[in-house]
Amino acid sequence: MASAAQRKPLGLRITIYGFAIIWLIAAAFPFIWTAWGSFKVELDFFSIADWTYALTGERTKAEYGSAFTEAGYRGAWIQEEFWRNVINTFIVCFFVVCTSLTFGTLGGYALSRSGHKYTFWLLITALIFRAMPPITLVSGYLLPFFEWNLWGILPTTIIVLVAINQPFTLWMLHSFFQNIPKELDESAKVDGCTQFQAFRHVIIPVMWPGVITTGLFSFLLAYNDFAVTAMLLSEENRTMIPEIAAYLGTTYTEGNVMFAVAAVVSATVPLFILVMFFQRQIVSGLTAGAVKG
Amino acid sequence: MFLKKIALAGTFAALASTTAYACEIGARVSIVGNEFPAIQTVGAGAQECSGAEVTTNLTADHQKINVPGMQGNPAEYTSAIIANSSIVALMNEDVIRPLDDLVAKYGGGLQKSQLITINGNIMAVAFMANAQHLMYRKDILADLGVEPPKTYEEMLDIAKMIRDKGIMENPIGGAYAAGWNLAQEFNNMFLGYGGAHFKPGTAEPNVNSEAGINALNMMKALSEYMNPDFLTHDSNATNAEYRAGNIALLNMWGSRAATQTTAEGVTDAVKAGHAVAGPMTVGGGDTPASTLWWDGWTVAKNISDEEAEATFVAMMNGIRPDILQDPEVAKQAVWLIEGYQPTEAAVGVFEAAKMGTTPYPMLPYMGLMHTALGNELADFMQGKESAEQALADVEAAYVAAAKEKGFLQ
Amino acid sequence: MRHSTFFWFFLPTGAAMLLFIAFPLVSVVLQSIYAPHPAVLIEVENCTPLVGCTTETTIDQDATRELREREPLGRFVGLEIFFDRGHLAITEAREAWSSSQSWGEYFDKLGNLPFYRAMAFTLTFTFVVSPLVILLGLIIALTVNALNERLRGLVIFFSLLPFVVTPLIGSLVLFWMIDSRGILGSFIQFLAGDPSLSLKASTGLMWVSIIVYGVWHAAPFAFVIFYAGLQTLPQDQVEAAQIDGATRLQQVRYVIVPHLMPLVTFVALIQLMDNFRVFEPIVGFNAQAHAQTLSWFIFNDLGGETRQLSSASASSVLTIIGVAILLSPVLVRTWRDFKGKV
Fold first, then answer.
1. pLDDT reported for residue C324
2. To which CATH superfamily is domain A83-290 assigned?
3. For residue C186, what pLDDT is reported?
4. pLDDT digits over B10-24, tens only?
5. Interface touch B65/A231, C-beta < 8 Å
6. How far is the CA of B266 from the CAs of A59, B344, C261, in angstroms?
7. Looking at beta carbons, which residues of chain C come within 8 Å of A111?
């Protein structure tokens, strides 16, 4: 590092640290606020009477004798059995990530190693598919899925999410593989390997940084999806996000917003942990070339 | 203590034996419906049946999946729980069957008023009723020395008094969230002014009329006394305002009356002051500015007769009169089941029925009108356009949709 | 690579996309040019609880069934639905043109038509949020890069949160906070010195809120990409610039930004696509009175008591065409790159 030459003037340092603090607050405050509020009753959380109630918990005190209550968590986890949705979410995420990466590495590798004209059109088609609103597709699924008795179960949702996720995975991995020198597998082929053997013995050992980063994006997509899971999963197979939406209630019915808030906080915790463990991976994977294209 | 235990054991045994005896089915049953507590109760009751599998899928998105789920052959769902607004979609697609023979065979316990007949055929069995009606703070009204309002004009007067005295800034609440809720409030007001949504016997729209303009102007006048965010307030948000003691008068669903003061954190003043009354009239009319609703169940067309029979038997078990013995269940809704004793919370809905409230129109194209109203009225409520322009937009949006669906040529 | 080898490698991903994206797309296009058959209506007597019997209108199923069986796709309407008032509104737009005195009045009338209303917000959102995201992402990346090593990890961790959080949840959280009695709402009222100010009650402020949410949500994505790019910045170039006496701003402008340019294109591309199909914030913010987007427009047609499949399909096709137009500059460039490479 040229840090000695780069010593920053005081004004610049203040600006940098000032901006970093402002951005930190903007990024983190909503989460802290929600986590704090999740231990209150609804009227305090929304501070419908007075905004300071959200801090002091006036109504929570009146109800529970303390400014904090775990009633929302108890309701969501025990009464509504939110853990079932958590398990479903992790099943969906696990299979979506594995399948997406398997399909994606094979396809992305092929696209990066073939010079034929159709690879361009395949990539462009994938790009257009990537740009389509998923809501457009979901309505088309309903009738055939009901007809073939595939509606409502986890495998259907998994394969749909994999398919919707393929364009992005393909693009990421395609540009990642392009940065792995062609000579590597070419020379393996000269040594008598088939294309698949070359892929297995030469490419697989060096592809992990890009694959892990791509896998994280697939995970996020599956974890956060609302449009597909809400429409394609039956009540007992719901993942977390549609379940949270269900807690919010409808016109006729009383929602239980605090269950939703507690569930929101619970659903965000795994994401925290994920980012904590993988933030280096994300950056290094991207640096390794997945976004150079 | 010992005696009590024996008595308890006895009731359990009796309950167990009656259900086992009463509900034996021979084919699969699969139910789709909304998710509120009363429907959960009915679904759980149906699942008590033995002999074959009974599955339920109770979700707020039921309207998006019930039609495709019943169009297949055999249909995924053997029964859909619907309301008078949503049975129309099933009728339009012709996916539910007439129940006359099943009612004759198994429907002994049903009251005549529970049978929804369309064109002489029984198409659904209703089990609960609902309507929007007045809820108010009797303590505040008593302080002012006024009676609860019978008309929307009186409601405005009282709201003005409350504001002028400085008791509350925005004393009126209403589920005016743009979309379905706002359209529903318009329907109430429009019917209250004697309007009819369509030219008789046709699918031609008829909302751009004097009644429509009056209805919009009244809604605008009411909104002056509402929280400025009213276009984002659905019934959940409106109730939260009421519970926090921010509003004194609101037109709210009867199905919400029982839980209005039981939620966490409701202030004591609201708990003590909460009261319900029948719906209000408007513009000197006799018909209340509200609509009457029912919820009921249907049986799919594209299933075998054995499955239809099993479904009917299981659903009958879900709405058998003795579910009302549980006081919690009795409070969940205004039940139409025999032996139901209206609770205090049910007064509003019964009053609505007595006053001759119009049922929500059960017309094939009403859903399209409702959607058009929900989309086009927000501009008027924000003061961006005139009532005439808003209603003209509604009609134009409706006509485009009705042409697409083949209701208009 | 031989065609057959390519085929086998590409088969799983290709089949998944064909089955679950391409086929539904074909059915969407078909649905947009076919509409349900005309319904034969009859007057019947209906009986309902608490009310009694009334005369109402319903569909004559026997008369309608025959039509349906003969042509199960529905009646062919060509582009009629694309041109009706719910979509491109050709007649209404032309009328508005001939009856308007000025451009302002014309756009006013156009804005009253649902499709153009949704289009207006979608385009505004796309073209305001995308550049802001790139700019903010770049600033954050430069800032983080200038922090000392120990602080970096912490800042990266928190910076990524708005991006990884579920969009529906993120927008709900922000929506709760900007309520006129929420903490942000109260703070803004305090800043503005106007206790009756409400972000949710005015269209303009609602647009601003949703745009702020959009930037908040997507900026970390741009940040992490740019930050990764900064790690590969060739130090010799920076040093050369320093020796030439370039100021810091000049270094950013002439060394760093050109180095990051391919990444800027990448982020811009992803942002254009994602922002054009923005949907969750409209639901989360309960904003349909003030702002509608094309995705929301499709969603709305599919909801309600009567699903308007043909209308939703037509809107979908129009959205896809819109996306293709937006992406066309990038497509052309990729084609040139590709031809250059082969």
1. 87
2. MetI-like (1.10.3720.10)
3. 84
4. 444 444 444 444 688
5. yes
6. 8, 19, 57
7. 10
**Mean pLDDT across A66-71:** 85
The reply to whether C159 touches chain B by the CB within 8 Å rule is no
Tell me the chain A residues in contact with residue C301 when contact means C-beta distances shorter than 8 Å.
none
Note whether B86 contacts A: Cβ–Cβ < 8 A.
no
- Decide if B65 and A151 are in contact by the 8 Å CB cutoff: yes
Q: Where are the domains of chain A?
A: 10-74, 83-290
Smallest CA-to-CA distance from A93 within A256, A199, A215, A207 is with A215
**In the prediction, which pLDDT does A7 show?**
67
Which token pair is B27?
């084919």
CB neighbours of B396 closer than 8 A, spacing ≥ 6? Answer: C85, C92
Parts of chain B with a pLDDT under 70: 1-22
Q: What does the DSSP 8-state code read for residue B147?
A: P
Q: Which among C13, C160, C225 has CB closest to A104?
A: C13
For residue B198, what are the contacts with CB-CB under 8 A and spacing of at least 6? B204, B205, B206, B363, B365, B369, C57
Return the pLDDT at B1: 34
Q: Which of B106, B250, B254, B107 is nearest to B168 (CA)?
A: B250
What is the bridge-based pairing of β-strands B121-137 and B172-174?
A: unpaired
Domain C113-178+207-341, CATH among 3.30.70.270, 1.10.3720.10, 3.40.50.2000, 3.40.50.300: 1.10.3720.10
Which ipTM score applies to this complex?
0.88
A41 contacts B246? CB cut-off 8 A: no
Interchain contact, B76 vs A253, CB within 8 Å: no
Confidence of residue A71 (pLDDT cuts 50, 70, 90): confident
CATH topology for B131-291+352-405? Answer: D-Maltodextrin-Binding Protein; domain 2 (3.40.190)
Size of interface A-C (CB pairs under 8 A): 264
Cβ of B231 within 8 Å of Cβ of C290? The answer is yes
What residues does each domain of chain C span? 39-74, 113-178+207-341
The burial class, CB within 10 Å (0-12 / 13-18 / 19+), for C203 is: middle
Instruction: Mark yes or no for CB contact B119/C302 under 8 Å.
Output: no
Percentage of chain A with pLDDT > 70? Answer: 93
Query: Which residues on adjacent β-strands are paired with residue C195?
Result: none
Which position has the higher pLDDT, A87 or C166? Answer: A87
Q: Which of residues 291-350 of B touch A (CB under 8 A)?
A: none
Q: Least CB-CB distance to B60: which of A42, A149, A250?
A: A250
Check: CB of residue B83 under 8 Å from CB of residue B63.
no
* Chains with ≥3 CB–CB distances under 8 Å to A: B, C
- Which residues does chain A have within 8 Å of residue C225's beta carbon, measured at their own beta carbons? 286, 291
For residues B251-284, one letter each, b for 16 or more C-beta atoms within 10 angstroms of the residue's C-beta and e for the rest, the string is bbbbbbbbebbebbbbbeebeebbbbbbbbbbbe
Interface contact flag, C56 B229, Cβ < 8 Å:
no
| Interval A40-56 mean pLDDT | 78
| Residue C228 in this model has a pLDDT that exceeds 90 | no
Span C225-232, average pLDDT: 88
Which chains share 3+ C-beta pairs under 8 angstroms with C? A, B
